Amino acid sequence: MGKRLIVAEKPAVGRDIAKVLGCREKGAGCQIGDTDIVTWAIGHLVTLCYPDELDPAYQEWSISTLPIIPDEIFLKPIESGKKQFEIVKDLMNSPEVDRIVCATDAGREGELIFRYIYQMAGCTKPVERLWISSLTFSAIKKGFENLNPASDYDDLYESARCRAEADWLIGMNGSRAYAIVNDMRRLSVGRVQSPTLAILVQRALERRNFVPEEYYELAADFSGINAKMLNEQLAETAVHPTRFPATEETKKALEVFILKNQNGKAVVKTAEETEESVPAQLLYDLTSLQRDANRLYGIPSKTTLDVAQSLYEKYKAITYPRTDSRFLSSDLASTLQKRLESLEQTEWSAGVEEAKASQKDLFGRFINNKGVSDHHAIIPTGEAKQIETWTKYERLVYGLIANRFVGMFLPDAVVIHQEYELQLGENSFIAGGDIVVVEGWSAVDKSRRLENTPQKRCRAGEFYNVTNLRVRHDQTTPPPHHTDASLLLAMEHAGTYAEEDADVQETEYGIGTPATRAATIETLITKEMVVRKGRTLQPTEYGVKLISILPEYLTRPDMTGQWEATLNKISKGIGNPRTFRRGINDLTEQLVAYALEKGNTGIKNANSVGRCPLCGNMVREYENSYYCVNKACGFRKIYKIVRGSHPYLGSITMRELLANQTATDERGTYTLIPNAPYISFVRTPLPEPDYQKFFELINDYNLLPIDNVDRGGAIWFEGTRSDEVMNDFVRECRKFGCVLSFAENVRALGRKSGWYLKVEDDHRNSYFAAKGTPIIEVYEYVSDATWDLPTDAHAVPAQEVDVIKVIEASGFEYVDKRNNGGSLWIIGGESECKSLINELGTYGLKFSFTPRGSRATSHRPGWYSQKPR
Fold first, then answer.
1. What mean pLDDT do residues 772-787 have?
2. What DSSP character marks residue 440?
3. pLDDT at position 27, please?
4. Cis previous bond, 67, omega within 30
5. CA atoms within 13 A on the CB side of 593
6. How far is 441 from 189, CA to CA, in rounded Å?
7. Bridge partner residues of 668 (DSSP)
8. How far is residue 433's CA from residue 228's CA, in Å, rounded to a whole number?
9. Quick check: helix, strand or coil at residue 248?
10. Average pLDDT in the 93-121 region?
């Protein structure tokens, strides 16, 4: 009898399987045992061919060749994985091997990865399927004891193949059609990316077209009860029934009311208190985990996926993360106590003792076999190890999963909702609040904060003195920009509105899958259709124009959600792959016809950065450079990365340079030199920062600081300013050497939202000095690579200490003594650096270290000590 070949999706998983099966001999791209050989892919090793690889006629992009709808789309090895593919292919066809086990990830894409390799290798040997939800030793061992025939997963493969071919047909034809019609090559259209982009564009247009409406509110204090006057005309219909039109007549009427009633008494007309039992939140699937990680910690969705995959593959700490289920199957019930016990001696032990003693019935809300598809919800495996070596993000993401898991066992939270109506004169006032009387699960799971805004409790018929009446003038605000969290929620529900904290299960009609949504967002960013600004995601002008010319059916999120629902039915054997493919073929033909009918819409100018100063034609932005579209013009190329003069010449700077012949950014001032037939520019460094002018400019722009204390080079400004005003402010500051960046409506230090201006690293010290602030500052931030500080260090306030002297006294050799934004380069070993961190921690100072080889300076390798900003 020959050997069995196991094909894993990644090397790390393959090695874990090899340990369980006793395959100890190392081979080329494999591990060999007495009866088994374990090999692996490196993610996708095989993909679909490009059109020009199917037929040379497609090498030239031409409308005459569209639509491209081949009877069969052939496969090819991915160039970067050719070597490993040949290894896997040879092993599959080796006479020594007589049967194969598919051990790729247990999901749609994992199935596709293996089937493509198997098909490309020309293998016909029998195949079994390993289907597991965690990579612990016991889970792998049990999985191999219960292998399934590969044919059980034929429907899953058909769904994956339909998805891949649909994306190919829409992407290749749509991108070519619109690129040809609009005379550009970088235009990109996709079955999933286009409706995702449309969600962002819709929000951007809502903000762009938003017209704020001013309003008045009359707030009152009744001996401890905070209330607002009810607008009787709006009481039954308005979302905000306490708002009044911002007219002079209204203002005068409210002021007259205040004068008349400022010493009056209000009577409680109605007093209602309702008690609500709030159950623990559902367990995490991938999308809800990504949303919370982004909402709470600002972690991008792709990073959360990578971290979760690391916790699953590397540390065996969590179950399979690429799941769309938020429930557990009944066969896991007997393992839950052990998983709880594994958290007892960790930093996530809060609530574990109570959870262990809990007699709560978990069936129905948490254990529900009908709610589990391919994989159950993400929970700890009970075998987390090497926790001290985990990065900050790994701890944060695991903490979310662990706390959510513990909260499942704890009692419901109990909240009392207060609703009061008071009468003052002839007008009614409404007040309300929430009182958390039982924390329950919310004491452990902090991902959802229960409102705790208690009002003074009162009863109908009681009288209260008026202690304060005041008119509040405000205006409505536009909907916020999308973040990863809100966009993932919109994708999950195919663009329909859903509350951010909604306790909902994955819907059937989402855009993409939990495993692919983060990648879709990153693709939009890579293709310059979307930019990430702080935590927000905003479409570029190119992205906005692209959506404007695409047919509605390709940008409608609900339509894409229906396609995903059909793919889901195919995977369950209740959908017809041929019918789906015919529908995609028809859609492809319509897409090309629509592009021809729509014609040239000017989108080719979406990547234009201005007019050529030599010939007047458009200058376009490409991936690495800028070109004049006139091939006869001398201005043929300016690279974004200019060796020796500038690290990156961005499109904003280039637009300003072409428009004004001069531009200023954080690196200096640029001057255009249009000497026909060529064009060039020169850069002069910024002057030394003049912070006296900076403070004067703050007054000129009427910016009111909320906080004059310097925290990491940040000042908080009250109120809202337009992007145009703030960009203009930033440009003016650069003229006298002050380099700033800003973000709208961010929160820090518990202060109200406003404008955040941050002095860039190159000028931090002179900025501090200008404000009379000590150079040595400490802020709450620890990087991924930080060591644990002594437990008492966190409680010690930062002391004024000469850090350089402390480091010198510890015997370290300096590479660079300059303090650049809190950065020091020193020579030292790992243990010595850890001791130094602990010593500095006793002063209340937090430092982080990155091992040698980091590209932070041009000096020789050493240890990088970064004073947190």
1. 26
2. G
3. 92
4. yes
5. 6
6. 45
7. 665
8. 13
9. helix
10. 95
Expressed in angstroms, the distance from the first to the final Cα of the chain is: 64
Alpha-carbon span 660 to 110, nearest angstrom:
53
381 class by beta-carbon count within 10 Å (0-12 exposed, 13-18 middle, 19+ buried) = buried
Sequence-distant (6+) residues with CB within 8 A of 70 are 54
Q: How far is CA 412 from CA 278, 279, 330, 415, 481, in A?
A: 5, 5, 22, 10, 34
Rg of the chain taking only CA atoms, in angstroms: 31
Chain length of the chain: 869
Considering the candidates 320, 542, 626, 691, report the single residue annotated as catalytic.
Answer: 320
**Structure tokens, 13:** 């998983």
- Which tens digits make up the pLDDT trace of 687-711? 776 767 777 777 777 665 544 444 4
- Are 374 and 106 contacting, i.e. CB atoms less than 8 angstroms apart? yes
Of residues 513 and 717, more confidently modeled: 513
Rounded-to-integer distance, Cα 467 and Cα 424, Å: 12
For the cut 60, the answer to whether the pLDDT of residue 312 exceeds it is: yes
Helices then strands, counting H and E runs in the chain, come out as 25, 35
Q: Are strands 244-245 and 463-465 parallel, antiparallel or unpaired?
A: unpaired
What are the backbone angles phi and psi of residue 556, rounded to the nearest 5°? -75, 115
pLDDT score of 433 more than 50: yes
Give the C-alpha distances (Å, rounded to integers) separating 167 from 192, 211, 284: 8, 39, 28
Of 117-121, 493-497, 592-596, the least confident: 493-497
CA distance 399 to 190: 36
DSSP state of 60: S
Contact 377, 369 (CB under 8 A): no
DSSP-assigned letter for residue 257: H
pLDDT tens-digit map of 590-648? 999 998 887 666 666 666 788 888 888 778 776 667 878 776 777 767 776 654 444 46
3-state secondary structure of 241: coil
On the 0-12 / 13-18 / 19+ scale of CB atoms within 10 A, 172 is buried
What is the 3-state secondary structure of 817-867? CCCCCCEEEEECCHHHHHHHHHHHHCCCCCCEEECCCCCCCCCCCCEEEEC
Catalytic residue flag (residue 320): yes
pLDDT, tens only, 330-340: 989 999 999 99
Residue type, 318: I
SS3 per residue for 645-683: CECCCCHHHHHHHHHHCEEEECCEEEEEECCCCCCEEEE
Among 95, 92, 113, residue whose Cα is nearest residue 103:
113
Q: Three-state secondary structure along 308-333? A: HHHHHHCCCCECCCCCCCCCECHHHH
Give the whole-angstrom CA distance, residue 308 versus residue 393. Answer: 9
**Does residue 279 carry a pLDDT above 70?**
yes
More reliable by pLDDT, 730 or 467? 467
Instruction: Locate 162 and state its tokens.
Output: 């339909």
Q: Measured between alpha carbons, how far is residue 670 from residues 570, 613, 614, 749, 761 in Å?
A: 58, 15, 18, 38, 21
pLDDT tens digits along 207-262: 999 999 999 999 999 998 999 999 988 766 667 899 999 999 999 999 999 999 98
The pLDDT score that the predictor gives to residue 246 is 92
Q: Is 335 exposed, middle or buried (CB count within 10 Å of its CB: 0-12, 13-18, 19+)?
A: middle
Enumerate residues 6+ apart whose C-beta is below 8 A from 497.
none
796 has pLDDT over 60 = no
Distance from C-alpha of 353 to C-alpha of 290, rounded to nearest angstrom: 28
Residue type, 759: V
Owner of token pair 């030394």: 688
Tokens read off for 584: 């995609």
Is the pLDDT at 815 greater than 50? The verdict is: no
Beta strands across the sheet bearing 813-816: 813-816, 823-827, 863-866, 848-850
